[in-house]
Design a protein that fits this description.
heterodimer, A: 246 residues, alpha/beta, Rossmann fold
Chain lengths: 246, 323
C-alpha cells in the first residue's frame, strides 16, 4: 500500500466537508476521485497532502503515519501534488520553477539545474525554459505544475484538476503526459471533473457526494451507478436519464 | 559578458576611489555612512527582501551589536570589536525567540512582533544602569591601540565598511544562487506551493532571519565604533529600522544591490536636509520617509533597480552559465 487514508473526517465548524472517507492507493495504479462541485474532493485531497489537518482519521504513506506531518515532510517521503489554481512562482523562469522542485533531492544548484532541464525537456517545455513563468497561459501553468512536482521525484503524484480549462488538443497532450508519467513508475491519484480524462486514465474510481463516498469501481461501473447519476443530475434528471432508451 | 565585467570593474573603481577624490572630511564621512547603512539595509534585505518577511524591528539587532561593542569596553576595558561575537550571539538568539512562533503565521504578525520587541528593548535599555540607561555608553575617547578602531578621520572607516559590505554582499550572492535563495523566492511567491515541493518554509525563513540579525548586529557594532557612543535613541530608535526598510525598498528589495542604491540616495538626502534644517530636522525626516514610502508603493513597488532591470534585455537570476 503506497498511500492509505482511513475514516478521514474534516469539519469546518458545524459543516462537515468530508465524512469518514477512506481510500487505499496501490503502487502503480491510477485512481480517480470524482464528484460534483462541493462534493469534498478537494478537501479530502488536501488532507492527503497535509495542507489541511483532518478532524479525525489517519493518513499513511508507505506504512508511515503522516496524519500530522507537514506538506514538506510528505514531499520528502515521495508525495507530490499539483494545485487546481496553479501556484506559479511568478518571478522565476520556467526552468527556475522546476529547479525549486529539484532542490528537494539535491542541495547543489548546478545539479538541480541539470535535473530541472531534463524534466523541462520531458514535459515539452524546452523552448520556453528561460521565459518568465508569469508569461505562461493556463495550459502552460498547468503543465509547469506537473513538471515541478515531477522534479521532486515522487512515488505518488496527486493531480488536482490538472486538466481543467484545456482545449481538446491540449487535453490530449496532457493525457499523453500523464500516461508517460505513469509508465515511468509513478502512482497517480487524479481529481477530475472531465469524465473523458477519467475514462482514458483511471482503472478505479471513487465517487464523492456531499462529503461521503457514494460509489467505487471502474469508470464504466460508476457512471452507470444510480446514486452517481442522481448526484450529478438530481433525482428528476436521473429518472429522465433512465427513461431514455440506451 | 565582457560588457558586464567592464561595468563591474568601473563600479568597483568608483567605490574604491571615492574618498580619495572627494577627500573633504564631510564627503568622506558621508561615504562611510552610505556604506554603513548599505550594510544594515543589505542585512535587512535577506529576510525582508528575499524572504518577504517585513521586519520593522531590525533596530533591536543593530542595538545589540552597538551596545555589546560599547559594553565590553566600558565594563571590561576590551576593544569594542571584542563585543562583536557577543552582539551577534544575542541577536541570533533574539531572532530565534521572535521568529519561531511568528514566522509560521501569515500576515502581519511577524512585523508586529518585531516592532513590539524593538520598542520593548528600547524601554528596558533606558532603565538598565549596566547599559548606561538613558545616558548611553561611550567607547574609547583616545585609541589605546589600533584594535580600538577609533580614528579621527572617516577614511579608515570608509574602507573598513567597504570590506564588510563586500563580505555581506558576497554572502547574500551565494545565498541567492543556492538552494536557500530559490526556496526563499518560492516561499515569497507561494508558500503553499513551496512547501508542497519540499521547502521547509518555517525553517528557511528562520535561517534568513537569523542570518539577517547577525549581519545587522555587525552593522550596529561598526556604527558604535565610528561614533564612539551609543544611547537608546541612536541605538534602538524605531527610525533606524525604518531607514533599513526604506533603503532596501527604494533601491529594490530582494535584489542584491538594491539596498546599496537606496543608501546611496537616502543618506546624502538626509545629511543635506539635516544641515539645512539643523536640529529641527528630525521631525521632517519622518515626513520625508513617509513620502518616499508612498511614492515607492504607488509607482515602483520593485524599487529603482527593478526599473533599470526591466529596461535592460531580460536575464534570469542565476543563469550565469546558462545563456
Amino acid at each position: 500500500m503506497l498511500l492509505e487514508a482511513q475514516n478521514i473526517t474534516k469539519a469546518f465548524g458545524s459543516f462537515t466537508a468530508v465524512a469518514s472517507a477512506s481510500v487505499t492507493v496501490e503502487e502503480g495504479e491510477i485512481l480517480g476521485l470524482i464528484g460534483p462541485n462541493g462534493a469534498g474532493k478537494s478537501t479530502f485531497f488536501n488532507c492527503l497532502t497535509g495542507d489541511l489537518p483532518p478532524t479525525s482519521g489517519t493518513v499513511r504513506l508507505m506504512g508511515e503515519d503522516v496524519t500530522r506531518a507537514s506538506p514538506e515532510e510528505r514531499a520528502r517521503l515521495g508525495l507530490a501534488r499539483t494545485f487546481q489554481l496553479p501556484q506559479t512562482f511568478e518571478r522565476m523562469t520556467v526552468l527556475e520553477n522546476v529547479m525549486v522542485g529539484a532542490f528537494l533531492r539535491t542541495p547543489d544548484a548546478f545539479e538541480a539545474r541539470e535535473r530541472a532541464r531534463a524534466i523541462v525537456e520531458r514535459v515539452g517545455m524546452r523552448a520556453i525554459a528561460e521565459a518568465p513563468a508569469r508569461n505562461l497561459g493556463t495550459p502552460g501553468r498547468k503543465r509547469l505544475e506537473i513538471a515541478r512536482a515531477l522534479a521532486t521525484e515522487p512515488k505518488v503524484l496527486l493531480l488536482d484538476e490538472a486538466m481543467a480549462g484545456l482545449n481538446p488538443a491540449e487535453l490530449h497532450r496532457a493525457i499523453e503526459l500523464v500516461r508517460e508519467i505513469h509508465r515511468s513508475g509513478v502512482t497517480l491519484v487524479i481529481v477530475e471533473h472531465i469524465m473523458e480524462v477519467i475514462h482514458s486514465l483511471a482503472r478505479r474510481v471513487i465517487v464523492f457526494h456531499q462529503g461521503r463516498e457514494i460509489a467505487r469501481g471502474t469508470p464504466d461501473e460508476v457512471t452507470r451507478h444510480s446514486a452517481v447519476i442522481e448526484a450529478y443530475l438530481g433525482k428528476r434528471g436521473a429518472r429522465a436519464a433512465k427513461a431514455r432508451p440506451a | 559578458m565582457t560588457k558586464r565585467l567592464l561595468f563591474s570593474a568601473a563600479a568597483a573603481l568608483i567605490v574604491i576611489a571615492y574618498p580619495l577624490v572627494f577627500s573633504s572630511p564631510f564627503q568622506q564621512r558621508l561615504g562611510a555612512l552610505v556604506l554603513l547603512y548599505a550594510i544594515a539595509a543589505s542585512a535587512w534585505n535577506i529576510v525582508g527582501g528575499y524572504a518577504g518577511q517585513v521586519s520593522v524591528g531590525h533596530v533591536v539587532f543593530f542595538g545589540c551589536g552597538a551596545y555589546a561593542a560599547m559594553a565590553v569596553y566600558q565594563h571590561f576595558g576590551l576593544p569594542p570589536i571584542a563585543g562583536v561575537p557577543l552582539g551577534i550571539a544575542v541577536s541570533v538568539l533574539i531572532a530565534a525567540v521572535i521568529g519561531v512562533p511568528t514566522l509560521r503565521l501569515s500576515g502581519h504578525y511577524f512585523s508586529m512582533a518585531t516592532i513590539a520587541v524593538a520598542e520593548l528593548a528600547r524601554l528596558i535599555t533606558t532603565n538598565v544602569e549596566f547599559l548606561g540607561a538613558a545616558v548611553g555608553l561611550s567607547g574609547p575617547t583616545v585609541p589605546r591601540t589600533v584594535l580600538d578602531l577609533s580614528f579621527t578621520s572617516a577614511l579608515p572607516y570608509y574602507y573598513l565598511f567597504l570590506a564588510v559590505l563586500a563580505g555581506t554582499l558576497a554572502l547574500t550572492w551565494r545565498m541567492e544562487r543556492g538552494r536557500m535563495g530559490y526556496y526563499l523566492r518560492a516561499i515569497k511567491d507561494s508558500e503553499r506551493a513551496a512547501r508542497s515541493l519540499g521547502a521547509a518554509s518555517g525553517r528557511y525563513k528562520l535561517y534568513a532571519f537569523m542570518l539577517s540579525a547577525a549581519l545587522t548586529s555587525l552593522a550596529g557594532a561598526l556604527y558604535a565604533m565610528m561614533f564612539g557612543f551609543i544611547d537608546p535613541e541612536s541605538g534602538l530608535g524605531i527610525l533606524i529600522s525604518v531607514k533599513m526598510l526604506i533603503m532596501a525598498a527604494l533601491g529594490g528589495a530582494g535584489l542584491l544591490f538594491g539596498p546599496l542604491v537606496g543608501a546611496a540616495i537616502l543618506v546624502p538626502l538626509e545629511e543635506v536636509s539635516n544641515n539645512l534644517l539643523g536640529g529641527r530636522g528630525a521631525g521632517l525626516t519622518f515626513v520625508l520617509y513617509g513620502a518616499i514610502i508612498t511614492l515607492i508603493a504607488r509607482f515602483q513597488p520593485g524599487g529603482l533597480l527593478d526599473l533599470v532591470r526591466r529596461r535592460l534585455p531580460r536575464r534570469s537570476v542565476g543563469s550565469g552559465h546558462a545563456a
